[in-house]
Automatic annotation (TrEMBL):
PANTHER family linked to this entry: ABC TRANSPORTER PERMEASE PROTEIN MJ0413-RELATED, ALKANE SULFONATE ABC TRANSPORTER-RELATED, MEMBRANE SUBUNIT
Membrane topology of the entry: Multi-pass membrane protein
Organism: Terrimicrobium sacchariphilum
Transmembrane regions: 15-34, 86-111, 123-142, 244-265
Subcellular location: Cell membrane
Protein name in the entry: NitT/TauT family transport system permease protein
Family membership noted in the UniProt record: Belongs to the binding-protein-dependent transport system permease family.
Domain ABC transmembrane type-1: 82-266
Length: 278
């Protein structure tokens, strides 16, 4: 039992998944306690219980099956919001990955790249992204491009610097070994630095994907009429907090599934890294 509390030591899989389930149970208990506290003050509309949120989901499913209003309309809105939001996040995140990874590799591999790119990056990334909303509207209008660009800017700079840090973590002795065996500078990057950094880069992508979903809410405040963030704000105006919580739970489930997908991909694609950690 003492081994369960040893730093960085592996634990049996049943203990791991049991602890994960217990964490959600504790969260539900705290949620129920908070809902009961507000209900005791006659303010249950401000903080709905898990059962009330579950009822929202049940009504939506029933409405989708029977076509009964307004549940059917709520389900249709949710499906549309999910599709639109997923497109916005995916487009912005893909664009950020396609541009940030090459630049991050350049910064981490070459001192001249670091000197040329990183100071400018550090300057720009401290400008609050929401402060750029008026400029994005002026440049790109109120259509999809401005929303995608806001999410892109919220993830691009962090991802680029995280990739460069992963490149720098590769021991320089490995690069010197390439030169000793007659390898070129290009091979030092493509055959050593990149392969050794890919597990960390995928982990950086996993983290930045979460940030992209966080920026989604801000992006959908920019003259949107569809999307998860737009719908949450609309429900807030009418104090429909049970539906707000339903959308928040849906966002959490999406994030958890994407996180697990990234972890699974990393575990399958980089088995050698998993073995090294163990």
């Amino acid at each position: 039992m003492s081994g369960l509390l040893s730093p960085r030591r592996s634990i049996p899989r049943p203990f791991y998944w049991g602890s994960a389930v217990l964490g959600f149970v504790v969260l539900l208990c705290v949620w129920q306690w908070a809902a009961g506290y507000y209900a005791g003050q006659g303010k249950q509309v401000l903080f709905p219980s898990p059962a009330a949120v579950g009822q929202v989901m049940q009504n939506m499913v029933r409405g989708a099956a029977t076509g009964q209003e307004p549940a059917a309309r709520d389900f249709q809105n949710f499906a549309t919001d999910l599709r639109i939001s997923f497109f916005r996040v995916t487009a912005a995140f893909a664009l950020a990955a396609l541009t940030a990874i090459p630049l991050g590799v350049m910064i981490g591999s070459y001192r001249i790249g670091e000197a040329f790119i990183q100071p400018v990056t550090e300057f720009i990334r401290y400008i609050p992204v929401p402060a750029l909303i008026p400029l994005l509207i002026v440049i790109f209008g109120i259509e999809e491009t401005s929303k995608i660009m806001l999410i892109y800017l919220g993830t691009f700079f962090q991802l680029m610097l995280m990739v460069s840090d992963e490149i720098r973590r590769v021991p320089y002795d490995l690069v010197q070994a390439v030169y000793t065996m007659g390898g070129t500078r290009r091979e030092a990057v493509t055959e050593v630095l990149l392969p050794a950094s890919w597990p960390g880069i995928v982990d950086a992508l996993r983290l930045c994907n979460g940030w992209a979903w966080s920026w989604l809410i801000v992006a959908e405040l920019v003259a949107a009429n569809e999307g998860m963030g737009f719908r949450i704000v609309k429900y807030q105006r009418f104090l429909q907090t049970d539906k707000i919580f339903f959308y928040l739970v849906a966002l959490g489930v999406i994030g958890l599934m994407l996180d697990l997908a990234f972890r699974l991909f990393s575990k399958i694609a980089f088995r050698w890294n998993v073995a090294a950690r163990n």
